Amino acid sequence: MKYDWKQAGEEWSEPWGTSDAQWNGTIFPRIRDWLPTGTILEIAPGFGRWTHFLKDYCDELWAVDKSSECIEACRQRFASAPHVRCYLNDGRSLSMIRDSSIDFIFSFDSFVHTNRDVVEAYVRELGTKLKVGGKGFIHHSNFGEYVSSPRERLPDALTKPLIKLQILDWAHHRNPGMTAELFRVLCEQNGLHCITQELVNWRGRRLIDCLSLFVRSDSAEENATKIIRNPNFMREAARIRRESRRQR
User: Fold this and answer.
1) What would the CATH number be for the domain defined by 10-246?
2) What is the pTM of this model?
3) Helical pair 180-189 and 116-129, crossing angle rounded to 10 deg
4) pLDDT digits (tens, 9 = 90+) for 68-77
């Protein structure tokens, strides 16, 4: 079913009040050490909710999405920003990006829904596109941790039927084929190393999402990944919403 973009994705920032409040209160504090930078790659920008902020922290920004509707919306929205380049792709490859050319990779609120094979394809690409010393920040699913054990995890083929039957509604359509651990392994297999992984809740108590920060494996000495289990993520959102309302 085609998604109705009449609110341009702003509806997903509702727990924070606005996308501006979510960016300033939740997202930017987690990536501020890596910005500003030279070249940013944003995967799956939608209608540019986060592109709007990222564009002010780089010399060049590549926004790549498999949706022609989203790319056209971004091209129109950022027509006056010549350093923002919007490209349509096949949903798993980045052939338009030169190898070792990206300083910072960003994706938020998209990979949480993505099947394992697509995540794996992208991670394989990211291992070649990131510069030495560059960083990546991807928000992805950890729902698989709650579905089954690693050896018995549900295959991606079961995801859509379960969502259709509303069995996965409590997980907000998170993909059960992905976990923080699996994402970490995929990074290791493709020349990347997760520095930190923050497991967070999303409109519930279970830590069904993960915020992974990674770097090229040859960028620095590899220490063990720092795992942060944060059950107060949505309390943070509620606090930010209250504060933003008081400031209006």
Assistant:
1) 3.40.50.150
2) 0.89
3) 40
4) 999 999 999 9
